[in-house]
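Hi R.,

As promised on Friday, here is the backbone we talked about, encoded as structure tokens. Could you run it through your design pipeline when you get a chance and send me back a sequence?
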């Protein structure tokens, strides 16, 4: 006969709230959340928020369109590639338009009688314009991939950069998010760049402006702020911060939005690992910023900025400091 040891017996659950406690807890949370919280404005009828999972699926589908054969279907041929692209783009169009509409409705402040209808029309227009920009996005991504290959002596071919490099993944997400950001889409651009951030450790705000042939080597810990302007042929290494020094406050003590806070980095600049560059300053073209430099002021073109050199002195016969 099998017996149950005392230590194997399930202890009574004394932590589970009774019905009255549960009802009180639910009521308190509903009150704390304001009952399905929304900001001021918004379309009537409690429109659903954009789905983070669906947005990520859209980005991954876009990656298969921008780099066909590298991601998604691997058995593409000259005969079936056009069919694959057309089918994928049609699915992207329908899903993206729905998510853009949700984002617009979430932030809607249109006082018209039927603001949701306006959001429908805007979502359709934005989606169409975004898709029309994909060929240009693909062309600039090709320059980023080439810069990654040419800038890393360990790279064996451009394909390796596309497949493996976190910098290429983060830059791809950024370029897609930036297009949506410039088209005035709320929420979704940040979902896209923060997804890449969570995977790669590279944090690029979709509002930043970045030129072609952009290369991030290694990448972990890179931060690029919202109002950064980065020129062509710029190379960053891990841990670089292009940030803000401080946040000007309004009369109510709240940060002032919409002002220039981050650096401009001109063409052909290299910034080595862990450098921190802060404020609305300019790094002149052709400059090289060394590792671990703290730089709160601009520098002219062609500058070479490094830490103070370490000095080692040899002492003899009791000499010393």
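Update: got your reply. Pasting your designed sequence below so it's all in one thread:
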């Amino acid at each position: 006969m099998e017996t149950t040891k005392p230590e194997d017996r399930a202890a009574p659950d004394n932590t589970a709230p009774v019905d009255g406690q549960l009802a009180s807890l639910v009521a308190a949370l509903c009150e704390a959340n304001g009952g399905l919280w929304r900001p001021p404005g918004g379309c009537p009828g409690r429109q659903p928020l954009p789905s983070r999972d669906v947005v990520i699926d859209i980005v991954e589908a876009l990656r298969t369109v921008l780099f066909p054969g590298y991601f998604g279907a691997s058995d593409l041929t000259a005969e079936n590639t056009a069919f694959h692209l057309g089918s994928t783009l049609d699915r992207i169009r329908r899903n993206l338009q729905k998510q853009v509409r949700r984002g617009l409705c979430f932030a809607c402040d249109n006082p018209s009688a039927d603001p949701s209808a306006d959001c429908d029309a805007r979502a359709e227009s934005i989606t169409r314009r975004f898709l029309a920009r994909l060929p240009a996005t693909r062309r600039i991504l090709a320059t980023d991939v080439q810069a990654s290959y040419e800038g890393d002596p360990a790279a064996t071919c451009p394909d390796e950069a596309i497949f493996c490099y976190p910098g290429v993944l983060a830059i791809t997400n950024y370029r897609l998010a930036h297009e949506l950001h410039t088209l005035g889409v709320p929420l979704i651009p940040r979902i896209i760049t923060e997804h890449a951030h969570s995977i790669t450790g590279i944090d690029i705000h979709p509002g930043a402006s970045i030129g072609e042939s952009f290369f991030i080597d290694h990448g972990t810990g890179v931060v690029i702020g919202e109002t950064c302007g980065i020129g062509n042929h710029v190379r960053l290494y891990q841990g670089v911060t292009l940030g803000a020094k401080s946040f000007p406050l309004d009369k109510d003590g709240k940060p002032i939005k919409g002002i220039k806070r981050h650096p401009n980095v001109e063409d052909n600049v290299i910034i080595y690992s862990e450098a921190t560059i802060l404020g609305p300053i300019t790094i002149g073209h052709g400059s090289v910023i060394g590792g671990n430099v703290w730089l709160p002021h601009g520098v002219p073109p062609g500058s070479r900025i490094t830490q103070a050199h370490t000095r080692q002195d040899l002492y003899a016969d009791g000499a010393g400091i």
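One thing I noticed while checking it: Helices lie at 19-32, 52-66, 81-106, 115-132, 134-151, 158-164, 166-182, 188-200.

Thanks again,
M.
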